[in-house]
Automatic annotation (TrEMBL):
Superkingdom, natural source: Eukaryota
Top-level taxonomy: Eukaryota, Viridiplantae, Streptophyta, Embryophyta, Tracheophyta
Protein name: porphobilinogen synthase
PANTHER family: DELTA-AMINOLEVULINIC ACID DEHYDRATASE
InterPro entries (UniProt xref): ALAD (IPR001731), Aldolase_TIM (IPR013785)
Entry's family note: Belongs to the ALAD family.
SMART domains to which the protein is assigned, alphabetical: ALAD
Biased composition (Basic residues): 107-116
Subcellular location: Plastid, Chloroplast
Keyword tags: Allosteric enzyme, Chlorophyll biosynthesis, Chloroplast, Heme biosynthesis, Lyase, Magnesium, Metal-binding, Plastid, Porphyrin biosynthesis, Transit peptide
Annotated source species: Hevea brasiliensis
Pathway the protein contributes to: Porphyrin-containing compound metabolism; protoporphyrin-IX biosynthesis; coproporphyrinogen-III from 5-aminolevulinate: step 1/4
Keyword presence, ATP-binding: no
Length: 432
């Protein structure tokens, strides 16, 4: 930005060879004013000083006058300090504002919030596309099928739509995904054997993505509900009881199959007792020491999962999941689950699900352990924000970004969110 230079009386000596036509912004008071060398004492002649104002712009770069550092310093030492723009006047208050004495405050926190630059300087929590894990629904079809309860989300064809969506996410810095399959009903069974089919939908999709994007971080879901004809996360006994140990046996085979296909992180979401240690042992026995486990440590029996179950057509055929998922009324129980996982010393990090309604649980675990924590912003949270945006009841983008920031502020290191692509685009746009 060029500066406008004004003339004013002063005691600084004239300068030789300065042609106003060759220096942008130099404007003498009179048209025939010339600058000549006057070799005399500074106090002997009246001279001029340039007042620099940066508020007026000119095209092109501003050219310097050619004074050396020593000459500039000599002028200041002699008392000829260049004039700067005056201090701006104090803004006037509106008419009728009462005149009151200043409050005797030793601290005024608003000082650190007075401008965008100041607010950015003191921001305690930051959000990045690297914090996002993008949940993607896949199916056997060729076409991408929209999910009615989740506007903007699709069951992606694993051959084409999935690869294209991953490419979009990577373009804006999201390089972690988690896969959820919509399995054909004909392949479902009471024991969910399709879960560990090495040529099943999920292993095929993993191999395809790893072939295309070797550095992509792929999370998988370890649970039987997408593969169970009963729609439950475990094997159901004839009296309706979910069988714990028999289910864990199936989950171990599922995790090994996913690791064999190339999964980076397996995520047991079933909430069976003892499954984390059993899965770690099974993975290590097959040589998959490098595969991480993200344990659904605090997964609540929540009503926020409705749209997800529509997406996978995985509603329980009978009953509910309250005998294995946690009671939403319970707080301390999260510590019991966390200590059980941590006592095995075999897991990589924890997950809390749902996310935003359970910020207190995220903070509880954050304060109690140094382990990384993930939060799942589930389908119901996503759908509510989307619905509010469509109805113009809220600013969808602002609320989306605020909700993601709140999860980070509560202590989540990563966030599983259906807003991953949209949120990352917003963050990239802000940087641009």
């Amino acid at each position: 930005m060029a500066s406008t230079i004004f003339n004013a009386p002063s005691a600084v000596a004239s300068m030789k060879g300065v042609d106003c036509k060759n220096y942008v912004g130099l404007k003498p008071i009179v048209n025939d004013l010339k600058f000549n060398v006057v070799k005399t004492s500074v106090k002997a002649v009246p001279k001029r000083v340039f007042i620099v104002r940066a508020s007026e712009t000119r095209d092109g770069p501003m050219k310097k006058l050619g004074l050396s550092d020593a000459e500039c310093e000599a002028a200041v030492v002699a008392g000829n300090v260049p004039e700067a723009p005056p201090v701006p006047p104090k803004p006037a208050a509106p008419a009728g504002t009462p005149v009151v004495p200043s409050l005797p405050l030793s601290r005024r926190p608003r000082r650190n919030r007075k401008s965008p630059a100041m607010r950015a300087s003191f921001q305690e929590t930051n959000l990045s596309p690297a914090n996002f894990v993008y949940p993607l629904f896949i199916h056997e079809g060729e076409e991408d099928t929209p999910i009615g309860a989740m506007p903007g989300c699709y069951r992606l064809g694993w051959r084409h739509g999935l690869v294209e969506e991953v490419a979009k996410a990577r373009d804006v810095g999201v390089n972690s995904i988690v896969l959820f399959p919509k399995v054909p009903d004909a392949l479902k069974s009471p024991t969910g054997d399709e879960a560990y089919n090495d040529n099943g939908l999920v292993p095929r999709a993993i191999r395809l993505l790893k072939d295309r994007y070797p550095d992509l971080v792929i999370y998988t879901d370890v649970a039987l509900d997408p593969y169970s004809s009963d729609g439950h996360d475990g094997i159901v006994r004839e009296d309706g009881v979910i069988m714990n140990d028999e289910t864990v046996h199936q989950l171990c085979k599922q995790a090994v199959s996913q690791a064999r296909a190339g999964a980076d992180v397996v995520s047991p979401s079933d909430m069976m007792d003892g499954r984390v240690g059993a899965i770690r042992t099974a993975l290590d026995a097959e040589g998959f020491h490098h595969v991480s486990i993200m344990s659904y440590t605090a997964k609540y029996a929540s009503s926020f999962y409705g749209p997800f179950r529509e997406a996978l057509d995985s509603n329980p055929r009978f009953g509910d999941k309250k005998t294995y998922q946690m009671n939403p009324a319970n707080y301390r129980e999260a510590l019991i689950e966390a200590r059980e996982d941590e006592s095995e010393e075999l897991m990589s990090f924890w997950l809390v699900k749902p996310g935003l309604p359970y910020l207190d649980i995220i903070r509880l675990l954050r304060d109690k352990s140094p382990l990384p924590i993930a939060a799942y912003q589930v389908s119901g949270e996503y759908s509510m924000i989307k619905a509010g945006g469509v109805l113009k009841m809220i600013d969808e983008e602002r609320l989306m970004m605020e909700s993601l920031m709140c999860l980070r502020r509560a202590g989540a290191d990563i966030i599983l969110t259906y807003f991953a692509l949209q949120g990352a685009r917003c963050l990239c746009g802000e940087k641009r």
